[in-house]
Amino acid sequence: MTADRSKELFERAVTCIPGGVNSPVRAYGAIGIAPRFIASTAGSHIYDVDGNAYIDYIDSWGPCILGHNDERIREAVVRASERGLSFGCATEIEVEMAEFICAHIPSIEMIRMVSSGTEAVMSAIRAARGYTGREKIIKFAGCYHGHSDAMLVSAGSGVMTSGVPDSAGVTPGCTKDTMTAVYNDLDSVKQLLEENPGQVAAVIVEPVGANMGVVLPADGFLPGLRRLCDEHQALLIFDEVITGFRLGFTGAQGLYGVTPDLTTYGKIIGAGMPVGAYGGRRDVMEMVAPVGPVYQAGTLSGNPIAMAAGLTQLQILQSDPAIYRKLSEMGDTLYGRMAAYVKDQQIPCQVTHIQSLGCLFFTEHPVTDYASAKTADTARYAAYFRHMLGSGIHLAPAQFEAMFLSAAHTESDLEATFKAFRGFFEKQ
Ligand code: KE4
Predict the structure, then answer these.
(1) What number does the ligand 1 atom closest to the CA of 156 have?
(2) What is the average per-residue pLDDT within 145-158?
(3) What pLDDT was estimated at residue 1?
(4) What was the pLDDT predicted at 154?
(5) Which of 61, 206, 243 best tests ligand 1's pocket when mutated (most atoms within 8 Å of CB)?
(6) Is 277's pLDDT higher than 90?
(7) Rounded mean pLDDT of the chain?
(8) Which atom number of ligand 1 is nearest to the Cα of residue 119?
(9) Which of 122, 145, 205 to mutate to test the pocket of ligand 1 (most atoms within 8 A of CB)?
């Protein structure tokens, strides 16, 4: 398995792109080898520029839930592109997309399309502040909500992996109103709300943490957040950029039966094209321009090509519940076997998973929040990643990310993945 062309491209890339990549995690910074440059994708596989094939568990960080380069989505994109790429005007498919989501997600009465998850979160927070007239936001250490200034406070994902709890360039003025609670610790939220009476506009949470590795909500955590927000007249924002339309068609809010006031989406609703969205209660969303005083805009928001891709994917997901059954069964098979192995072999690792999302933590401690996730041995994860890559399995190049299964993964993919996983520990 050579990587000469990837190395050559990386050498060129670092001269003209910061770190050689357009998003930090792609640089394999936590891994210590040149990143693989990918030439094409299909189904459960990706193919690098040196011709190596990998069973892929990044899944473009979640959007390609049906598998890479699904023909139905590609055809929708081609058909839409024949009518033009971007109009800067209202289009019918934007109405269809909004109507479809509002018809199928009970908490969504109105929705606004944007071009990324970051933009969705930034806008939802602005809408929450505009609606409540309050300034403070509570987030959770280890949860990542994109790179808007106010959110880069003890963020998970890339920032966490690079060990920088805050980001340079983010001014104290931008983060002074962002308070950080402990995931799965309702008392930490209650304390912040009581210490800041009448000042908290919203609590934002990843209903399943997927940016500190995969960390599940403890029983009662999400309902507790709903209750605390009601008691303190704060809005509850579910950041479902990863979990939306992944953990069942109605996402984490449907799975856990907790209704947020606002929800942010990304990834799956674009099917690989640049799409984010925020939506929820009509009285909150009607604060958003041009109908209300909260300004938010975007040249490519609701782009017709991106809408064609995303709506096609959502329609397929909504029409075929067997897709989610398959994703769950595959997750139980693969992650369940991994968990049983580390337990049987008394290996100091933790496997967390929910349906198609999973994570192998290199720590002996149960992982329930940011602090326990950080006990993971990132050097061991890097060695594991390199072993799996060499075995033709492409994982997230960082401990504090998730594994994503798609509907295109097969039993033989899972078998090959488990064998490579077991091989890592057998050769220790
Ligand atoms: P984007 O701006 O990257 O589209 O979405 C930001 C975002 C918001 N909320 C959640 C829960 C997210 O997971 C994300 C982005 N996820 C990362 C993966 N950990 C994207 C990968 C990357 O940064 O390259």
Answers:
(1) 19
(2) 78
(3) 83
(4) 63
(5) 61
(6) yes
(7) 96
(8) 2
(9) 145
Q: Is 377 a catalytic residue?
A: no
Share above pLDDT 70 across residues of the chain, in percent, rounded to a whole number: 97
Catalytic-residue membership of 144: yes
**Catalytic entry in 144, 256, 265, 370:** 144
pLDDT in tens, 216-259: 999 999 999 999 999 999 999 999 999 999 999 999 999 999 99
Atom of ligand 1 nearest to the CA of 26: 24
The b-or-e profile of 56-89 (16+ CB within 10 A means b, else e) is bbbbbbbbbbbbbbbeebeebbeebeeeeeeeee
Q: Are 66 and 310 in contact (CB under 8 A)?
A: no
Pocket probe mutation, ligand 1, options 211, 215, 269, 400, max atoms within 8 Å of Cβ: 211
* Residue 267 falls in the annotated catalytic set: yes
Task: Catalytic residue, from 136, 139, 267, 374: name it.
Answer: 267
3-state helix/strand/coil string of the chain: CCCHHHHHHHHHHHHHCHHHCCCHHHHCCCCCCCCCCEEEEEECEEEECCCCEEEECCHHHCCCCCCECCHHHHHHHHHHHCCCCCCCCCCHHHHHHHHHHHHHCCCCCEEEEECCHHHHHHHHHHHHHHHHCCCEEEEECCCCCCCCHHHCECCCHHHHHCCCCECCCCCHHHHCCEEEECCCCHHHHHHHHHHCCCCEEEEEECCCECCCCCECCCCCHHHHHHHHHHHCCCEEEEECCCCCCCCCCCHHHHHHCCCCCEEEECHHHCECECCEEEEECHHHHCCECCCCCECCCCCCCCCHHHHHHHHHHHHHHHHCCHHHHHHHHHHHHHHHHHHHHHHHCCCCCEEEEECCEEEEECCCCCCCCHHHHCCCCHHHHHHHHHHHHHCCEECCCCCCCCEECCCCCCHHHHHHHHHHHHHHHHCC
Say how many Å lie between the CA of residue 200 and the centre of ligand 1.
24
Supply the residue whose CA is at minimum distance from atom 20 of ligand 1: 61
Pocket of ligand 1 (CB under 6 A): 23, 25, 61, 116-118, 121, 144-146, 157-158, 206, 211, 239, 241-242, 266, 276, 401
Q: Which atom of ligand 1 is nearest to the CA of 267?
A: 4
pLDDT in the model for residue 153: 85
389-406 confidence digits (pLDDT tens): 999 999 999 999 999 999
Write the residue with the smallest CA distance to atom 13 of ligand 1: 242
